[in-house]
TrEMBL record:
Protein name per UniProt: N-acetyltransferase domain-containing protein
UniProt entry keywords in alphabetical sequence: Acyltransferase, Transferase
Assigned protein family: Belongs to the acetyltransferase family. MAK3 subfamily.
Annotated N-acetyltransferase domain residues: 18-168
Any one GO CC term of the record: NatC complex
GO molecular function, one term: protein-N-terminal amino-acid acetyltransferase activity
Keyword Acyltransferase appears in the UniProt entry: yes
Region (Disordered), start-end ranges: 183-205
Gene3D superfamilies: 3.40.630.30
Length: 205
């Protein structure tokens, strides 16, 4: 697949993958590092309240990648009850250009997803611009599928795909299923709801 010029060797940093250190959000000193990366690399503008909302409430779901003391990548997420499902949501993912194509984003996202799974999430969702080949390929490799297309989702007018990763749930036994049935719960019911009820996640600025 065609890679953008940012992955040209001339612009790549030289490093061993073992030199990249991954840490979960550790406090206020990490906030400007996250903000700088996201502001530089994502099209969507976020206010400081949006960043704080995520990292204060779910510090264990945000990770930073460092190389020799320099922050080179970050992922910011949340999780919670959503229409009868407990689900994780990946809000922001960025790796700076010289460090791309070496698996750093995959490692960041995998760490967040692992914590989400351990916390009882049944699925993980996110939105990506339909034109963002790199992100779509990355999440596709991790098992995400395209759940729907959101028209004109971003402030720049671009459509988004909502991507979804469903976890296998072998632990769900028959008694739980019967209880769920009695509660009138319906698996995947959120897939068929009006769009405005599904799009709350991104618009906090
Ligand atoms: C998307 C992004 C986070 C990927 O970071 P990364 O560290 O380079 O990703 P990885 O090295 O973990 O990539 C893993 C796989 O994703 C796919 N991929 C990543 N970038 C790609 C690109 N530009 N073109 C095609 N496939 C790409 C490849 O399948 C890759 O595996 P491979 O290297 O074995 O081919 C990075 O390009 C970025 O920060 N982009 C700008 C911000 C952004 O778009 N964020 C996502 C918003 S939804």
């Amino acid at each position: 697949m065609e890679k953008p010029e940012v992955d040209e060797p001339s612009q790549s940093a030289s490093f061993e993958e073992s030199e990249i250190e991954y840490v979960s959000y550790g406090g206020e000193h990490h906030l400007p590092l996250i903000m700088r990366l996201v502001d530089e690399e994502l099209s969507e503008p976020y206010s400081i309240f949006t960043y704080r909302y995520f990292v204060y409430l779910w510090p264990q779901l945000s990770f930073l990648a460092f190389h020799r003391g320099r922050c080179v990548g970050t992922v910011v997420c949340k999780m919670g009850e959503h229409r009868n499902t407990f689900r994780g949501y990946i809000a922001m993912l960025v790796v700076i250009k010289p460090y791309r194509g070496r698996g750093i984003a995959t490692e960041l996202v995998s760490r967040s997803i692992r914590v989400m799974m351990e916390s009882g999430c049944e699925e993980v969702t996110l939105e990506a611009e339909v034109t963002n080949k790199g992100a779509l390929a990355l999440y596709g490799r991790l098992g995400f599928v395209r759940a729907k297309r959101l028209f004109c989702y971003y402030l720049n007018g671009v459509d988004a795909f909502r991507l979804k990763l469903l976890f296998p749930r072998p632990e769900l036994d028959i008694s739980q299923m019967m209880m769920a049935h009695r509660d009138g719960r319906q698996e995947h019911s959120h897939d068929h709801l009006p769009q405005d009820q599904c799009c709350e996640d991104h618009h906090h600025h």
